[in-house]
Amino acid sequence: MKISFSKKVMITGATSGIGNANAKIFAKNGFNLIITGRRKEKLDELKKKLTNKYSIHIISLCFDIRNQAEVKKAWKSLKPEWKQLDILINNAGLAKGFQPIHEGNSDDWEVMIDTNVKGLLYITRLVSQEMVKNKKGHIINLCSSAGHEVYPNGNVYCATKFAVDALTKSMRLDLYKFGIRVSQVSPGHVEETEFALVRFDGDENKAKMYQDFTPLKSKDVAEIIYFVGTRQKHINIQDILVMGTQQASNNYIDRSGRLIN
Questions:
Q1: What is the distance between the alpha carbons of residues 220 and 30, in angstroms, rounded to a whole number?
Q2: Sign of the CA dihedral running 199, 18, 4, 40
Q3: Rounded to an integer, what distance in angstroms lies between the CA atom of residue 229 and that of residue 32?
Q4: What is the pLDDT of residues 8-47, one digit of tens each?
Q5: Using CB atoms within 10 A of its CB, is residue 100 exposed (0-12), middle (13-18) or buried (19+)?
Q6: What confidence tens digit (pLDDT) does each residue in 94-116 have?
Q7: The pTM is what?
Q8: What is the CATH superfamily name and number for domain 8-253?
Q9: Percentage of the chain surpassing pLDDT 90?
């Protein structure tokens, strides 16, 4: 299919949460989308919903970001015009487990490192090569407040997000000379995502983390990412650290009750 206009964004981890919210806001504003994730039915549902609502083109790619062979195969399947991306949003990421280091589950560590660090690298390696060739593009990494400040029992998750922060800074040094912008957005607590449910292995009671304060919503973060990605070419917003009003830091949260807007 010949793409009729040039604005194209790839969003990893688009099946839920912040990635899903990103797909909606970019689609609403006329971007063609490549949405990726592991759950084909979720991708198909999102694609159908957004193509019916907006006059855009969408490609869905179902693969596991942790598997380099799958990432390469999915990228190779794209036609040349789809590889000329304006924006890559490295959104795919997760937390698994919430134990002190001496009680941690090494399987959880592997999942977080493979997803949050290695997966980000696999897709960025392919996309950035094309951006360098075209001398344009914008890479936006979803970091976290956990990439700026550690907290008890966060050990390996925090380490992966500190890695994202370091990679973002080093990518920028590698790519700025080719006219490519590299940014990151670092949110604190965010609800309307599957983050807590995944961290606690589907335990809905443990995942009820936000009942006594008001965190950010996935839409809030998506709006910020959209703002970062749509500035004029001479502007690169390097990092935004954002939290809800009741969260002063990772370790200080006012849990006296939810705010009423």
A1: 19
A2: positive
A3: 14
A4: 999 999 999 999 999 999 999 999 999 999 999 999 999 9
A5: exposed
A6: 999 999 999 999 999 999 999 99
A7: 0.96
A8: NAD(P)-binding Rossmann-like Domain (3.40.50.720)
A9: 94
Which ranges constitute the DSSP H helices of the chain?
A: 17-28, 40-53, 68-76, 80-83, 106-112, 120-134, 155-175, 195-199, 218-229
From the candidates 54, 122, 157, 226, give the one annotated as an active-site residue.
Answer: 157
pLDDT, averaged across the chain: 96
Q: How far apart are CA 172 and CA 166, in angstroms?
A: 10
Backbone angles phi, psi at 210, to 5 degrees: -115, 15
Q: Where are the domains of the chain?
A: 8-253
Q: What number of CA atoms fall less than 13 Å from residue 140's CA on the CB side?
A: 29
Is there a contact between 61 and 85 (Cβ–Cβ < 8 Å)? Answer: no
Please say if 151 is a catalytic residue: no
Q: What is the Cα–Cα distance from 141 to 167, expressed in whole angstroms?
A: 9
**pLDDT for 260 beyond 90:** no
Amino acid found at 140: I
